[in-house]
Amino acid sequence: MTDLKRMTLALALAASASFAHAADLRIGLQEDPDVLDPDQSRTFVGRIVYASLCDKLVDITPGLEIIPQLATGWSWSEDGKTLTMQLREGVTFHDGTPFDAEAVKANIDRSQNLPESRRKSEVKSITGVEVTGPHEVQFSLADPDATLLAQFADRAGMMVSPTAAAAAGADFGLNPVCSGPFKFVERIQQDRIVLEKFADYWNADAISFDRVVFLPIPDTTVRLANLRAGDLDMLERLAATDVASAKGDASLQVEEAVSLGYQGITVNVANGERANNPLGQDARVRQALSLAIDRNVINQVVFEGAFAPGNQPFPPTSPWYDTRFPVPERDVEKAKALLKEAGFDRLEIEVQVANNPVQMQLMQVVQAMAAEAGFDIKLTAKEFATLLKDQTAGDYQASQVGWSGRVDPDGNIHQFQTCNGGINDSKYCDPEVDRLLNAARVSNDTAERKASYDAARAILAEAMPIIYLYHQTWIWALSDKLDGFVPYPDGMIRLEGVSFK
Amino acid sequence: MLGFIGRRLIIAIPTIVLISIFVFALQKLLPGDPVLAMAGEERDPEVLEFLREKYRLNDPIPQQYLHWMGGVMQGDLGVSLRTRQPVLELIAEKLPVTIQLAVMAMTIALMIGIPAGILSAVHKGGWIDWLANLFALSGLSVPNFWLGIMLILLVSVKLGWLPASGYQPLATDPLRSIQTMLMPAFVLGTGLAATLMRHTRSAMLGVLRADFIRTARAKGLRERTVILKHALRNALVPIVTISALLFGELLAGAVLTEQIFTIPGFGKMIVDAVFNRDYAVVQGVVLCTAVAFIAMNLAADAAYRWLNPRMREQG
């Protein structure tokens, strides 16, 4: 072999080594996650990272049933105030700490008592955690809490290593240690989060990647270009406008699932001075506005038909949706009549909206439709942090916002529409709605809960403090080399069973 | 020379303090509550209050400023409200990225801008001048984000020559690092090259009309020597000023370009920080950028003295 050939070979080897290893999975995220501590974080993309990093007590199926993950079984006491869980044996955290009942106790304690914890309200119903065996734990509750298992299927149920958490305190997120299929390697803000396979994972056979790299790429066009160029293997939140072109590309697959959340217009009905206007004071005006809107047209015009029109806090695909009241047809005449009944021929209202192109376009379509029924909508575009602050403070008439959605129906409705709800920015208050939503919270009987939600929904559909418009669909684009991806309505990316063909 | 630099450094201190006060005050004027932005969908009033206390957001603003400045004096720029990472660490992480991008973009700008400016001045009115002007005009008027996306579609998606976006540190993989930076540097560089070309051209045109150039030609010097040695060196002073200012701007981060090519530099960090009301990060980055800008100006002033001996006698 000549020197030249040898050098060429060496260079070729060096070059190939510099490219990504075949079993590396690169996932494009829409934004950079915040702090990687399940007790402190709040971003949707953060949860996508956790799906590979941190196992939870329980998980969900695509049909929203609760299934075992770190807990293998559970049972409720007769009075619904004690939950006993059997835990998976032979599980260790990434730092070698064994996962057992003591670890669960420490985790609940951390969610409840770490001053920075954002999980406090999610585990508020737990009054005590008792270790009843090395792998059995008992939760005592003040009142029955039907939402608890669903909380355990999200960040409140993510188990972090108690050893690492005690050592790092509030700085745990700089070097998170959990028990999921991948362990934390490094993070460069706004650039990448690297995880590598955890060899001792209890379900290691289902995992076929050596490393997972999350790359935040905010621009949707660029994210798709990266996938097409082979620099990504999959991405989350493909823009609705790109679905057609991605489906037409033979090297890509597109997967979809209607989300658990909603988008709508929250109306200020009793949140300070600015609620004193016809829209805030007269339910007929709100009903008229709702009737003036064609939700199907919004979906076709703004979202190219990719999302799901909606009229309830739960999407039509949810088992909690009240099918007796489907998405209403637009009825301009009825809207005009209602407005007239309320004493107006034309009415000017102000709606605040986040200043991004999609939400602006949405509200412009609403503005045009409502104009035909007699509404002169003035749109005020605000940067999101400002919009949120004004909404909390009551400095708005109506606000176009949404909610990312929760597995349990309670998470989509209770805190928004009960009198003292934490996110009740419209300050709507009806004791009967409170009673129904509280009853739904403490019952473990699905049919009984459904009846309560249906009854509350009927009242809310009349009062209409929130005008529901549509439900976003999570859209993933994947390289055709990937196999086994299952879309979930919570928008997470679960890598069990996913592999390269 | 040393005395000159020393005097300039002393003047720089009040400037930096003023900038820091200005940025601090301006941020507080921004509507929106950092704690609310941080809490997102989980809005437990108790937690919000704890965070406000913890990050001293309840203190009077002058007190907040003094506390922050006290930390800065000790080399502590605070902690990111969003990720809890120390700001100093963040800056140390992003600065090499931004410097690499700035150096590469500046190199491309100088390599295109100065020769194009010289050529179009020498061939004033000819087709080279016309072509260079056309280039300059399009370089100035084509928006970066458009050129960026077009380049990604052409070079990465269609041709597959370069990675579409992302970043690799120079130390771990130099080849890949330069590959990933090439397109963003080109996008930034061509925009700057246009500015540089225009300035080089007008400076050169001014000098080429001067008497000493005629003298040099009359002496029978080669045209090449006349242009590069006599004309260019005299035309360089304004070009150095412009280059230093442009480079200083590059150090502040190229927001749009970084966003499109997902380069984790200053621009992307500061935009994310502003949207999340991550005060500590914004302040830290602006302070750092202000220092860099002042340093670039100082470097430019020092360069004049080296280029133009007549300026050395002035204080």
Automatic annotation (TrEMBL), chain B:
Q: What InterPro entries would the database entry show? A: BPD_transp_1_N, MetI-like, MetI-like_sf
Q: From the record, give the transmembrane residue ranges.
A: 9-30, 99-122, 134-157, 177-196, 235-261, 281-304
PROSITE patterns for this protein: ABC_TM1
Name a single GO cellular component: plasma membrane
Residues forming the ABC transmembrane type-1 domain are 95-304
Family statement drawn from the similarity comment of this UniProt entry: Belongs to the binding-protein-dependent transport system permease family.
Q: What is this protein called?
A: ABC transporter permease
